[in-house]
Amino acid sequence: MERSGEERKKEGRQSSILRLMEKNFYISVEEISDFFTVTTQTARRDILALEKAGRVRRLHGGAVLVGPLEETVYRRRRVDNAEQKQRIGELVADLVPDGASIFIDSGTTCEAIARALSRRNHLRVLTYSLRVATILNENTNFTLAVPGGFVRPIHGGIFQEETPEFIRNFKFDSAIISVSGIDNDGDLCDDDHAESVVATAAMAQSRRTLVAVDSSKFGKRAMVRLGSISDLDTLVTDTMPEGEIRRLLEENDVEIIC
């Protein structure tokens, strides 16, 4: 049976919603409504249909993607906001003195930070990102530690059940973290529960927690709560945040560098 024009329009809109979610992992009902000029009831029906198809998981006020990140999406993230990520990397490198002990998270922003850190000397680095480790190993005289385990495809994270415990054997001057979003309520959000557990363990072992994100992450929500703005010492970004996020940062005496 031939589909009606309305059915084709609905399927096209839902495919577009998934493409939008590939960049930020989360989308709200209001964002769907505004972007596609539909009612919030239609936006909720789209989310429900995508959930029934196994593509998304509903959350309060929106939805998150289900399933692993595809290689094409990760490659696009490396290109998106590349100039901002490079500048953020340089700012972070300015904050890390020679000889410091640091933890570096995974992700495209942390890869940019690793490249910028190559001008430092004798850092002691722990990372669970095979990509970050490769960048540092090829270009520096750093002492480099990585946990054992299986390498996840696409982003190169190294995980096993004991990884958080491995990290608790170390002390860091700084934990350098990147997140998928900073929600307007102050929560730090990530796409992957395993990664958030590792990052949380590193934050607990560090004198300073530094979060590095480009401004596209402000007001974004992802499935896993990693922590909150109150856990931070420093935020490094490309544009000064505004609104509730700015208020929470100032209320918690978080240093903002942009």
TrEMBL record:
Q: Which residue spans traverse the membrane? A: none
- Top-rank taxon: Bacteria
| Pfam families with a match to the protein in the record | DeoRC (PF00455), HTH_DeoR (PF08220)
Taking every annotated instance into account, which residue ranges of this chain make up the domain HTH deoR-type? 10-65
Annotated keywords:
DNA-binding, Plasmid, Repressor, Transcription, Transcription regulation
Q: In its keyword annotation, does this UniProt entry include Ribonucleoprotein?
A: no
| An MF annotation (GO) of this entry | DNA binding
Q: Which InterPro entries match?
A: Carb_Metab_HTH_regulators, DeoR-like_C, DeoR_HTH, NagB/RpiA_transferase-like, Tscrpt_reg_HTH_DeoR_CS, WH-like_DNA-bd_sf, WH_DNA-bd_sf
The stretch of residues making up the signal peptide is none
The protein depicted here goes by the name: DeoR/GlpR transcriptional regulator
The record lists the organism as: Martelella lutilitoris
* Upper taxonomic lineage: Bacteria, Pseudomonadati, Pseudomonadota, Alphaproteobacteria, Hyphomicrobiales
